[in-house]
Design goal:
Shape: globular
Largest sheet: none
Structural class: mainly alpha
Strand content: under 5%
Distance between the termini: 21 Å
Number of helices: 8
Order of helices and strands: HHHHHHHH
């Protein structure tokens, strides 16, 4: 399973590096979202500083939709999805590989957006370990849920518009928990206070979707 996961993750990441879709489309879109937030909100009253964690994770979530649709679209042309089914690869390995590839792309976007928040919103980073733990667990949860719903919507004609409708309500807990944990980290609250509860929620969400994806990806791939 792990060998198959490494093969699939390597393939997806190589395709992304060659196409440069993430660099040329997703990354500029993510930065543009931050810039629009900066124009829309009052910069004089400290609104941007107070709302920076929420704006950051909204930008991550919107960018994740593009990355997830791109990941699901890699298997659509030329019978690639049929080839995956007939290749003998472990479906759980295929799922974990696609999750890993999406997670790597999201991690790169989060680094870019983090720099953008510091520069555009004049935010001072604090509680770096809490921020790192929040980013890792939220990224895994988003990637796992997105990959699962991506294959669920893959066989439908309206998958481009249906995927956000299916995914956004499901990942709302990730947005809330990641925002609250990031707020507490920036305020310098220790891990044994409020952030721990939100981090536990993120861990539970990630574990549920990774476990469910490992078990259900094979049947969903057959249906797609």
């Amino acid at each position: 399973m792990w060998r198959d996961a490494a093969l699939v993750a390597g393939r997806d990441l190589r395709l992304e590096l060659r196409s440069r879709v993430g660099m040329n489309q997703v990354a500029p879109f993510a930065v543009l979202v931050l810039v629009l937030f900066a124009f829309a909100l009052d910069t004089e009253g400290g609104v941007l500083q107070r709302t920076a964690p929420g704006l950051f994770w909204v930008a991550v979530l919107l960018s994740a939709l593009l990355a997830i649709q791109r990941s699901a679209g890699l298997d659509a042309p030329d019978g690639v999805r049929d080839a995956l089914r007939l290749s003998g690869l472990d479906p759980a390995g295929v799922f974990l590989g696609k999750v890993a590839a999406v997670a790597v792309q999201l991690a790169a976007l989060e680094v870019l957006l983090g720099v953008g928040v510091v520069v555009l919103y004049d935010v001072e980073l604090g509680g770096l370990w809490t921020l790192l733990a929040t980013a890792v667990t939220a990224t895994v949860g988003l990637a796992a849920a997105g990959t699962l719903y991506g294959v669920l919507a893959a066989g439908l004609r309206v998958r481009e518009t249906l995927l956000p409708l299916l995914l956004l309500p499901v990942v709302a807990p990730v947005l809330i928990a990641a925002t609250r944990a990031s707020e507490a980290a920036l305020e310098g609250v220790a891990l044994d206070v409020a952030p721990a509860d939100w981090l536990r929620l993120l861990v539970v969400f990630a574990v549920i979707y990774v476990a469910f994806g490992v078990a259900a990806y094979g049947p969903l791939l057959e249906e797609a």
